[in-house]
Design brief:
Elements lengths: L19 H27 L4 H6 L10 H6 L6 H10 L13 H12 L4
Organism: Patulibacter brassicae
Protein name: Integration host factor, actinobacterial type
InterPro entries: IHF-like_H2TH (IPR055201), IHF_actinobact (IPR047806)
């Protein structure tokens, strides 16, 4: 049995210090990603973009977005309908687009392409 003295302490694990320029660059990249996602959500809502095509080949900046958040941007997809589709495809609501397995991605695209009845 290992004792707490042998376990690594939280204080021994530190993140590397970043320079002001590195922090500003990271902040700028994060703001660009947020702006692109906001524009994408507007395009999804207006019908200018298709969620199924985006899921098939997402741009790199979309890989860290939650699947549920993108589904909620699509007209007529609320929490209940989006949740049902994700459950049907065995996908967690917290799953990111980049974290989808090929099976999950294919099932989700197929489910989204089926006519709603």
């Amino acid at each position: 049995m290992s004792s707490p003295a042998n376990a690594p302490s939280k204080s021994s694990v530190t993140t590397p210090e970043r320079s002001l320029n590195q922090r500003l660059d990271a902040l700028q990249r994060a703001n660009e990603v947020r702006s692109k996602r906001a524009a994408l959500k507007r395009d999804l809502k207006s019908g200018r973009q298709s969620i199924d095509r985006l899921l098939e080949s997402p741009p790199e900046w979309l890989e860290t977005a939650k699947v549920m958040d993108m589904l909620l941007a699509v007209p007529k997809y609320g929490r209940v309908r989006a949740g049902k589709i994700l459950a049907q495809c065995r996908i967690s609501a917290s799953k990111t687009i980049g974290g989808l397995t090929p099976r999950q991605r294919a099932e989700l695209v197929q489910a989204l392409r089926q006519p709603r009845g």
